[in-house]
Each structure stands twice: as structure tokens, then as C-alpha cells.
Amino acid sequence: MSFNVLIVDDSSSIRAVVKKIVVLSGFQMDKCFEASDGRQAMELLAENWVDVIISDINMPEINGLELLDLLAESPTLKEIPVIMVTTEGSDLRMKDAFARGARGFIKKPFLPEEIKKVLYEVIGVGHDGQYEENPRNADELDF
């Protein structure tokens, strides 16, 4: 199973590094979208579906925390897991990001294995990238 990823960072070189690390991690990515700030991310999300967002916190225009607020306003977009990636790792900043809806937090610099682990955790798949089997019996389903 492959996933669509949106990487949001004001530095194109950082976006390229994050994309490369995601690929090197072995995470199964289908499409990778890139945005330079929260405003561009919201424009991309209006036209494209993504399974996970990896976002920096500090950006011009609309920063990562403000992006979390905008996502929370949408019944559909608020369900997309967001992982914050930043050099700022203070407890206060992390608590603020989680309070606004972030599902993961990675401090720069990070290793490919670390980002893969967090990606799989927030998406809800097993270590092999596949959704876990639901042990329910077909007779229990109500449709």
C-alpha cells in the first residue's frame, strides 16, 4: 500500500531532504506534494488528497501551528494526520502542537528509521506498511 504525502516547509532544500529521507526510510509513498507554507498547503489540499502531512513549524504567511488550526476547521481535512518536524523541541512547543491536532513530532536532525516509525504510527499501519487485519467475522458487519 502506498500513501500520498504533503511536505510543508519554506525551504525547498529542506523539503527535498525530508522527501529523500522518507524515500530512504522505505516508507511506501505514492505521490509527494510540496508546499512552502500553510497557505500553499491548503491550496494543494483543496485539489488533492493526502494521507499524511509533514510540516515545519516556523514558516512565513501561515506557519505550521496556524496550518493545524486551519485543518481543524474542516470536517474532512482535520482527519489527516500531521507530523511536525522542527529544530524547536521545547516541551511547550510540542504541547501546543499536540493541542492543536498534531499526531507526531520529530526533532531535526532525524534518521530515516525514526521518520518511518512515526509515519506508520500516525497513519495506523503495521511495521510492514499494511493496515492491520480486523479480526471481526463477516457476519458481525451491519451492511
Write the layout of secondary structure elements.
Layout: E1 3-8, H1 12-25, E2 29-35, H2 38-47, E3 52-55, H3 64-72, E4 82-86, H4 91-99, E5 104-107, H5 112-123
Parallel strand pairs: 1-2, 1-3, 3-4, 4-5
Helix pairs in contact: 1-5, 2-3
Reported for the largest beta sheet, the result is: 5 strands, parallel
**Element-by-element helix/strand order:** EHEHEHEHEH
Count the helices. How many? 5
Radius of gyration: 16 Å
Helical content (DSSP H or I, runs of 4+): 25-40%
Structural class based on helices, strands and sheet pairing: alpha/beta
Uncertain runs are: 133-138
DSSP strand tally: 5
Describe the structure in your own words.
- With 143 residues, the protein is of the alpha/beta class.
- The protein is built from five helices and five strands, in the order E-H-E-H-E-H-E-H-E-H.
- The chain has helices spanning 12-25, 38-47, 64-72, 91-99, 112-123; strands spanning 3-8, 29-35, 52-55, 82-86, 104-107.
- It has a five-stranded parallel sheet with strand order 2-1-3-4-5, with helices on both faces.
- The protein is globular and about 30 Å long.
- Residues 133-138 have low confidence and may be disordered.
Task: Provide a compact summary of the structure.
By secondary structure, the chain is of the alpha/beta class. It has 5 helices and 5 strands, in the order βαβαβαβαβα. A 5-stranded parallel sheet has the order 2-1-3-4-5, sandwiched between helices.
